Amino acid sequence: MLHKTIFIAYYTSNPDNLLGGIKMKKIILLSALSLTLLSPKVAMGANTYEVAKGDTLTKIASEYDVSIDELLKTNSAIKDANQIRIGQIINLPASNTTVNQKESQSVEQRVLSLVNEERSKSGLPPLEMDTAVSNVAILKSEDMRDNNYFNHTSPSYGSPFEMMKSFGISYEYAGENIAAGQPSADAVMKSWMNSPGHKANILNKNYTHIGIGHVTGGKYAHYWTQQFIGN
């Protein structure tokens, strides 16, 4: 079975007029050795989940938008909601994959909607989807999947800034969020918004446009890229 570990990372830049160049900043979350490993979760398949360190039934229920009662009903072996162990396999209720209004949108459009909901809460204008930037974001996600890496620097295209410029995208401000393993737009946005660096990119007042790329397959089953620009 495929194990999907969830990763996220962000990359951002600001203009540095004094130096006449771009000031680039890469933030590694928790540990450089773990390559931005954030609250690792292992999904065994569409409807099962392997308990990781730090997990609680409440946390798992929240992550998959189900109730604790639903989890207990589908896991009769669990007699106490407070007693789960690392490595234990949890059956997820079928309701967590219910087709609803959220899924009537494409995953990219759903991410955009969630981004702009968060920006609205902070009194910020919405970001516009940029087709050219989205095409680059899709290529980045495909590149991570096909070349089996998780990093802002691509072996094929270089840094996010080099990649954007190589495809003719100009900007004054630019940034990138990446993630791997999250099974849905809602799950990946939850991960990003729970991380200060990713949240800062999403709520950056200097950004005006966004490109979003989601692809499936590969080691982590889902690869996500948000690329932000502002002019």
UniProtKB/TrEMBL annotation:
InterPro entries: CAP_dom, CAP_domain_YkwD-like, CAP_sf, LysM, LysM_dom_sf. It comes from Peribacillus simplex NBRC 15720 = DSM 1321. PANTHER family: SCP DOMAIN-CONTAINING PROTEIN (PTHR31157). The lineage of its organism: Bacteria, Bacillati, Bacillota, Bacilli, Bacillales. Residues 47-92 form the LysM domain. This is LysM domain-containing protein.
